[in-house]
Amino acid sequence: MKAFMTNGTIDFLLKLDEKHKDIPFHFMTSNSNGLAYYEGSKKSVFSAGREYDILIEKGDILDDGYVVMNNIPVIEDGQASFEARFKKRGNDVDMMPGFQAFRFLKPRKGNTYVVFTQWQSEQDFENWKNSEQFKQSHKGQATKPPAYYADKPFITTYHMFDKE
């Protein structure tokens, strides 16, 4: 299964919904722009977008909620160990109140992986960040970034956009 994303103004992105009625798009907004996301097995319908392999999938992405995407650039030689680290992780995040969905996305082009989580609310995400489970799953990362990071990771956040 693959995931597809593209950015643009929400007005522009909503036109995709009219053009591709058979695709279950998820629309999101941030302070700076909009994002259209969908999952499938065929070729992307985006003329300019990003394509990922879904390596881990938990929960269903819902039309309401708060999305946090941790974008992590990984050097080519470090991809196998980076992926293995995620596959060994427990299910701590999906046991948290407010958790809705998790995706571990490997880029089909480029080197930036995406750790996608969806929460009922921004407060639910903050509760996760301040939890003991979060500290355990991120143990040892605060001191020194792993050698396989190609660049500094960055976070993007979105609120699901209600088309109605």
Q: Could you outline the blueprint of secondary structure elements for this entry?
A:
Layout lengths: L1 E7 L1 H10 L6 E4 L4 E7 L9 E10 L6 E8 L5 H10 L10 E9 L4 E8 L2 H8 L2 H6 L16 E7 L4
Describe this entry's structure for a reader.
Residues 66-158 form the ABM domain. This is Heme-degrading monooxygenase HmoB. InterPro entries: ABM_dom, Dimeric_a/b-barrel, Heme-degrading_MO. This protein has helices spanning 10-19, 79-88, 122-129, 132-137, and strands at 2-8, 26-29, 34-40, 50-59, 66-73, 99-107, 112-119, 154-160. With 164 residues, it is an alpha+beta fold. It has an eight-stranded antiparallel barrel. It is globular. The two termini are 28 Å apart. The mean pLDDT is 90.
**Main sheet strand line-up:** 1-3-2-8-5-7-6-4
- Counted by DSSP, the helix tally is 4
Shape verdict: globular
Q: List unreliable stretches of 5+ residues.
A: none
Q: Briefly note the structural class of the backbone.
A: alpha+beta
Number of beta-strand segments? 8
Protein name: Heme-degrading monooxygenase HmoB
Pfam family, one: ABM
Keywords: Monooxygenase, Oxidoreductase
InterPro entries: ABM_dom, Dimeric_a/b-barrel, Heme-degrading_MO
Describe the structure in brief.
By secondary structure, this protein is α+β, with helices and mostly antiparallel strands. It has helices spanning 10-19, 79-88, 122-129, 132-137; strands at residues 2-8, 26-29, 34-40, 50-59, 66-73, 99-107, 112-119, 154-160. An 8-stranded antiparallel beta barrel has the order 1-3-2-8-5-7-6-4.
